[in-house]
Amino acid sequence: SSSSTAGPLPEEDCMKLNPSFLGIALSSLLAIDLWASKRLGVCAGENSAWGSARPLMKVIEVSGHGIPWLLGTFCGLCQSDSSAAREVLLNLLFALLLDLVLVAVVKGLVKRRRPTHNKMDMFVTISVDKYSFPSGHATRAALVCRFVLRHLVLAVPLRVLVVLWALIVSISRVMLGRHNMTDVLFGLVLGYALYSVVEYCWLSPLSAPALFALW
């Protein structure tokens, strides 16, 4: 009798019992992402499959870290005696700072934990670095790569090396176990798009005379 008097299930319960195709697809992709990222974390520890290459991967990690880039750009800006070079370096500094702020905000909002096989021995971290989405190294690599290719006159071999550096830095994040694959892929897309924002907001003696007066 109870079954005959029971009414239809509420709509939200029906949705829980019959998950959408999109929800199933996203859950499946997330599972694949976690599985593949763990398999590719071959330098996550000294006892990993490629553990002997971990020191090299950590050197690559430092090459994509924000602090060396910020210090190097600032020092170049202080020592430059060319107005054109100062303009490029000032905008690179602006791009790097914007990258740090944006990545920190997204990490704080998403709060995705780093892979369980990651060792927290990273070079100079801050509070939001306990989160992994997106990869700040990948974002920075894509941003710097586009910036350098657009504003520096380089021979073809050097341009190829810049692109390879950006790819190697990004791949090393998964190999070290720092990030999942989706963290890196989103970071590359974000960095690529962020450069367009920097170009749109390009700082020049006309648009920002107070900044250039400091140098």
From TrEMBL:
Membrane topology recorded in Swiss-Prot or TrEMBL: Multi-pass membrane protein
A GO MF term: sphingosine-1-phosphate phosphatase activity
Keywords: Endoplasmic reticulum, Hydrolase, Lipid metabolism, Membrane, Nucleus, Transmembrane, Transmembrane helix
Subcellular location per the Swiss-Prot or TrEMBL entry: Endoplasmic reticulum membrane; Nucleus inner membrane
Phosphatidic acid phosphatase type 2/haloperoxidase domain segment(s): 88-199
Top enzyme class: hydrolase
One of the GO BP terms on file: lipid metabolic process
InterPro entries: PAP2/HPO, PAP2/HPO_sf
GO CC, alphabetical: endoplasmic reticulum membrane; nuclear inner membrane
Reactions mediated catalytically: (2E)-geranyl phosphate + H2O = (2E)-geraniol + phosphate; (2E,6E,10E)-geranylgeranyl phosphate + H2O = (2E,6E,10E)-geranylgeraniol + phosphate; (2E)-geranyl diphosphate + H2O = (2E)-geranyl phosphate + phosphate + H(+); (2E,6E)-farnesyl phosphate + H2O = (2E,6E)-farnesol + phosphate
One Pfam match: PAP2
Enzyme Commission identifier(s): 3.6.1.68
CDD domains per record: PAP2_containing_2_like (cd03391)
Regions crossing the membrane: 88-110, 152-172, 184-203
Family recorded in the similarity comment: Belongs to the PA-phosphatase related phosphoesterase family.
PANTHER family according to UniProt: POLYISOPRENOID DIPHOSPHATE_PHOSPHATE PHOSPHOHYDROLASE PLPP6, SPHINGOSINE-1-PHOSPHATE PHOSPHOHYDROLASE
The name this protein goes by in its record: Polyisoprenoid diphosphate/phosphate phosphohydrolase PLPP6
